[in-house]
Amino acid sequence: MIAYLEGRLLDLTAKGCVLVTPGGVGYEVSLPSSALVLLPQKGGEAHLYTHMVVREDALDLYGFITSDERDLFRLLIGIDKLGPKKALGILSHFRPEHLRELVLREDADMLATVPGIGPKSAREIMWKLKDKVTGIKTGPTLAATPQNAPQGEYFDAVAGMKALGYTEDEARPMIKEIFEAEPDIDASSAIRVALKKIAAARS
């Protein structure tokens, strides 16, 4: 079982990233967006807590910034009919402390906003987690994303910058800096701020 990885960030993939260990072995790791936001730029050193899922035809590795997030992922995939993909979707929308609040409030409607999670599934997840919610610890503040909103705004802003001709490596640090300064900003506003900063730097 691979429980932890550290190494150089080689590339970003559709699922997450490729991490190369000091021994030269590259691992493709699937990540929630909460982890993607906090990754270094390509070539930087990354550290991930991991969970390995063994299937008949594949070995899948899932990565997280904190052990608390990984523990919550394990709780989620232990729920009947809730696989790793849906568990990652939940962790991409809600930090551990926010999910804990939802469970305590029995706010199934908010949980049902996660793609692939319907109202019935949301209620079942709430019921299954209720007795275990005290084990969901609070993690570090992810200042690069809105505190009480899905983290898709960050990625929408990065995608918007790429559509304007900027590379991933150019867009990510600019947008991350903006979200760190204004956690509640939306994607469109973040793009406008980024373009203004670029124009000011060139003048």
From TrEMBL:
> Where located?
Cytoplasm
Q: Which key words tag this protein in UniProt?
A: ATP-binding, Cytoplasm, DNA damage, DNA recombination, DNA repair, DNA-binding, Helicase, Hydrolase, Nucleotide-binding
**Gene Ontology molecular-function annotations:** ATP binding; four-way junction DNA binding; four-way junction helicase activity
Check the record and name the CDD domains matching this protein: UBA_RuvA_C (cd14332)
Per the UniProt record, one Pfam family is: RuvA_C
Task: Write the signal peptide boundaries.
Answer: none
Q: Where is this region: Domain III?
A: 151-203
Residue ranges of the Helix-hairpin-helix DNA-binding motif class domain? 74-93, 109-128
Q: Which InterPro entries match?
A: DNA_helicase_Holl-junc_RuvA_I (IPR013849), Hlx-hairpin-Hlx_DNA-bd_motif (IPR003583), NA-bd_OB-fold (IPR012340), RuvA (IPR000085), RuvA_2-like (IPR010994), RuvA_C (IPR011114), RuvA_C_sf (IPR036267)
Gene Ontology, cellular component aspect: cytoplasm; Holliday junction helicase complex; Holliday junction resolvase complex
Primary subcellular site in the record, as a coarse category: cytoplasm
- Protein origin, superkingdom: Bacteria
Q: What's an example Gene Ontology biological process for this entry?
A: DNA recombination
Task: Reproduce the free-text note on domains from the UniProt record.
Answer: Has three domains with a flexible linker between the domains II and III and assumes an 'L' shape. Domain III is highly mobile and contacts RuvB.
Q: What does this protein do?
A: The RuvA-RuvB-RuvC complex processes Holliday junction (HJ) DNA during genetic recombination and DNA repair, while the RuvA-RuvB complex plays an important role in the rescue of blocked DNA replication forks via replication fork reversal (RFR). RuvA specifically binds to HJ cruciform DNA, conferring on it an open structure. The RuvB hexamer acts as an ATP-dependent pump, pulling dsDNA into and through the RuvAB complex. HJ branch migration allows RuvC to scan DNA until it finds its consensus sequence, where it cleaves and resolves the cruciform DNA.
Q: Which family does it belong to?
A: Belongs to the RuvA family.
Subunit structure and binding partners: Homotetramer. Forms an RuvA(8)-RuvB(12)-Holliday junction (HJ) complex. HJ DNA is sandwiched between 2 RuvA tetramers; dsDNA enters through RuvA and exits via RuvB. An RuvB hexamer assembles on each DNA strand where it exits the tetramer. Each RuvB hexamer is contacted by two RuvA subunits (via domain III) on 2 adjacent RuvB subunits; this complex drives branch migration. In the full resolvosome a probable DNA-RuvA(4)-RuvB(12)-RuvC(2) complex forms which resolves the HJ.
Protein name, UniProt field: Holliday junction branch migration complex subunit RuvA
